[in-house]
């Protein structure tokens, strides 16, 4: 692989990781800094990284840096997950904006109640649209294990939703 092709592929992967960091709750500036640091670390260690593991390596380095940053900023702050719900709504009326805002708050609250691994996999599957095989590659897991964890995460999310719905008196 020549340098030009590697640069294009690296840029492609880092854009994906950047968007994932934003969905995890990183500010634009923090995500840019993390991506820059991740690219720098890749250039430092690229000789020791297997070509088949580049995407997984970049993803893990960036996510770990984000977790380090959040721990540094606040030990108790949960990772906020952001969903782009505007695509689901065609027309943006004030009523729909209020409903969307309430729905986003409900989803954030429910996701905060889940285990971190469940949150991460649900986000990867449903917010970024990754396939199970791609998630398995990112976490160096078997595809069956990812399916099992996703099933448990969905089940837990539903249970939390029912509790939350009951608490809210809806």
**Structural shape:** globular
> In CATH, what is the homologous superfamily of the largest domain?
Winged helix-like DNA-binding domain superfamily/Winged helix DNA-binding domain
Low-pLDDT parts are: 76-81
Beta-strand share of residues: under 5%
List the domain count as a whole number. Answer: 2
What would CATH call the architecture of the largest domain?
Answer: Orthogonal Bundle
Compressed to H and E, one letter per element, the order equals HHHHHHH
How widely separated are the two ends? 57 Å
- Rg, rounded, reads 18 Å
Relative helix content: over 70%
The largest sheet, given as strand count, sense and whether it forms a barrel, is: none
CATH topology of the largest domain: Arc Repressor Mutant, subunit A
Count, helices: 7
Q: What is the mean predicted local confidence, pLDDT?
A: 81
Key terms for this structure?
single chain; 170 residues; mainly alpha; Rna Polymerase Sigma Factor, Chain: A; Arc Repressor Mutant, subunit A; 2 domains; globular
Question: What's a concise summary of this model?
Answer:
This protein starts with a helix and ends with a helix. It has helices at 3-24, 28-45, 54-73, 94-112, 116-127, 132-139, 143-168. The protein has 2 domains: 3-73, Rna Polymerase Sigma Factor, Chain: A; 94-168, Arc Repressor Mutant, subunit A (Orthogonal Bundle), CATH 1.10.10.10.
Could you please describe the fold and organization of this structure?
The longest helix is centred in the C-terminal third of the chain and has 26 residues, at 143-168. Helix 1 (3-24) packs antiparallel against helix 2, helix 1 (3-24) runs parallel beside helix 3 and helix 6 (132-139) crosses helix 7 (143-168). The chain starts with a helix and ends with a helix. It is mostly helical and 170 residues long. It has helices spanning 3-24, 28-45, 54-73, 94-112, 116-127, 132-139, 143-168. Mean pLDDT is 81; it is low at 76-81. It has 2 domains: 3-73, Rna Polymerase Sigma Factor, Chain: A (Orthogonal Bundle); 94-168, Winged helix-like DNA-binding domain superfamily/Winged helix DNA-binding domain (Arc Repressor Mutant, subunit A). Helices cover 74% and strands 0% of the residues.
